[in-house]
Write the structure tokens for this entry.
Amino acid sequence: MEHPHTLSHHSLRWSGQTDRGRIRKNNEDSFLCLQFDAREVQYLGKIGEASLGKHDFAFAVSDGMGGAKAGEFASRITVEKITKLLPPAYKLGALGLEAGIDDVLVELFDQIHKALMHLGRSYEECQGMGATLTLGWFTPGWLFFAHIGDSRLYYAPSREQGKSLEAGGLRQLSHDDTYVGWLQRQGQINEREARSHPAKNALQKALGAGHQFVEPQIGAVAFEPGDRFLLCTDGVVDGYFDSTLLDELRTPGMTAQRLVQGAVMSSGRDNATALIIDVV
């Protein structure tokens, strides 16, 4: 892999938004925007722009599950753990050690899983609590990602870069950890059939929630100026077909606020959370 820090320093521009939707009484989604180096983590606002020079960046969305307030608690614990575990790993990104970054992400997911399982065993109101997690770690030139559950990471390459645009220009980098998601990846059902399938929300993998083992999907993608990434929970996916989502993401000045608002107007059955990250 090319040494990421030999590349010119790009900047990232981001926006994040979460909404409880029109039916749910509480919001079990969380999102996170972080800037970090070897020494410290800094929480970022829901809208901002910064250079990928002296710091790395992490963005994450999590959809909690469990009775009463357990789902809210689960997604909050999930994002808090990330802030403690990433700074010690900063040097791996600086050295471009892809294998080391993979190990850190696996360990991070394992620690969150153990924390949720412990709470689920210790407190009756936390029994069965769990969470999805989709995390993107930006270093200069490379996005490393880890994922479990049915929240999603999408990649819309810049048309100006002359890249081959898969699936009309929108790539879902994350795999939905559902049987329905597997059927769709195998080509046995299409997107419309997947959306109406009765088991579409039945998770095969999640953090906590009684699952014995955690095997997150780990990956990496090189990026260039003009590329756009979207992290979102299933409440946003409910509101858009992929073709419509691509149109929205191609809209100049599109923000997470507008995207979430559109999803809630279109569906609104679930909490909806989105993070849009542009490479500039």
Q: What stands out?
A: The chain has one domain: 4-279. Helices lie at 70-85, 90-95, 98-122, 179-185, 191-196, 234-237, 242-250, 256-266.
